[in-house]
Write a structure and sequence with these properties.
By secondary structure, the protein is mainly beta. It has one domain: Nucleic acid-binding proteins (OB fold (Dihydrolipoamide Acetyltransferase, E2P)), CATH 2.40.50. It is built from 1 helix and 9 strands, in the order E-E-E-E-H-E-E-E-E-E. A 5-stranded mixed β-barrel has the order 1-3-4-6-5. Strands 8-9 form a two-stranded antiparallel sheet. Strand 3 and strand 4 form a beta hairpin. It is globular and about 50 Å long. It starts with 5 loop residues before the first strand and ends in an 11-residue tail after the last strand. The C terminus is likely disordered.
C-alpha cells in the first residue's frame, strides 16, 4: 500500500499569489508556517518554525485568493516533489503541498476553533506517481483540475 496525504494547520506568511496556466487554469501559491517549542538538555526553551509551499488549482485557488497574511488555515493535500535546473545550472528540488481542501480557522469567544469550510466539492485533485494529476470531475488541457 502507498499513500500520499498531508494535513497542515498554520498561518499564512503572505497573501496568496495568483496566476494563470497557459490553459487558463487559475493557480494560487502561498507559504504556510507551523511551528513548535521544545526544551533542550539544558532546559533552554527553543522555538522552531517550518515553512511549507502550498499550491491550489481552479476553484480552490479562487477561494485561497480571499485569504490574507496571518490567517490561521487548515490545508489537506498531497506532497509533490519537483526537480528543475535554473539558469545557473544547479539542480534544485522543491517540495510542495498540492491542496485538495483548505479552510480558514477562527477562534470563538469560548476558545473553541470554528472551521470556515470553504472547500469546493467539485475540487478533488490527486497527484499520481508519474507527476501528472487527475480530478474526479474536470481537467484543463494541461492535466490540472479545474
Amino acid at each position: 500500500m502507498q499513500r500520499n496525504h498531508i494535513e497542515l494547520a498554520g498561518y499564512l506568511g503572505a497573501k496568496p499569489v495568483v496566476r494563470f496556466l497557459p490553459s487558463g487554469t487559475k493557480v494560487a501559491n502561498v507559504r504556510l508556517a507551523e511551528g513548535y517549542r521544545y526544551n533542550d538538555a539544558d532546559k533552554q526553551e527553543h522555538e522552531h518554525t517550518n515553512w511549507h509551499a502550498i499550491v491550489a488549482y481552479g476553484r480552490l485557488a479562487e477561494i485561497l485568493e480571499q485569504f490574507d497574511k496571518g490567517d490561521n488555515v487548515l490545508v489537506d493535500g498531497t506532497l509533490q516533489i519537483r526537480e528543475f535546473t535554473p539558469a545557473d545550472g544547479t539542480k534544485r528540488r522543491v517540495y510542495e503541498v498540492i491542496a485538495r481542501t483548505a479552510a480558514r480557522l477562527e477562534r470563538l469567544a469560548n476558545g473553541d476553533v470554528d472551521v470556515k469550510d470553504n472547500n469546493p466539492q467539485e475540487q478533488h485533485a490527486q497527484v499520481t506517481v508519474d507527476g501528472g494529476s487527475h480530478a474526479s470531475d474536470a481537467h484543463s488541457q494541461d492535466g490540472w483540475p479545474v
